[in-house]
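Agenda item 2: zinc ion complex prediction
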Amino acid sequence: MEGTDLLGNYFKVECIGCALADKSLVPVGGIIKETENFILHHDPEVPIKGFLIIASKQHIKSITQLSKPQAIEFFELCYKARVALSSFEDIDECALIQEERSSHFHFWILPKYKWLNDLFDNSLSSLRPIMKYAEENLKTEKNIEDIKMCVERLKLILNE
Ligand SMILES: [Zn+2]
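Presented output:
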């Protein structure tokens, strides 16, 4: 697949999940936290502050393919990431989503900001329109700077 990241850099990779796992593709701000089987990073393309992704390093589609220790490793990372987002005053609700459609497992943690809920219905069907809106309207210098600061703060919280 190919695309343009938040910073305007063009990329073309076989698999975005593999490229992030082997570090040939660096998401905005870099990897937030890495465990044996997963990485936590900001969404590389959608400029919504704190839109986090937990991706597996291996090709799996579903949590059913995890061993129990891997499932615990995954959930601990998920829990810690979600709790870390609670330290941001403007985040009080998130959508946690894992579609089993992709060949490379990725789990979304998407903050639902008040300004988003003012613009869109607070429902699953709004997710794609929200992402499209963000890609078209939120690649501003200020917002990108806020995202980088958010990533740095999450790194500090999650790697203590
Ligand atoms: Zn892959």
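Discussion summary: The radius of gyration is 15 Å.
Owner for follow-up: CH.
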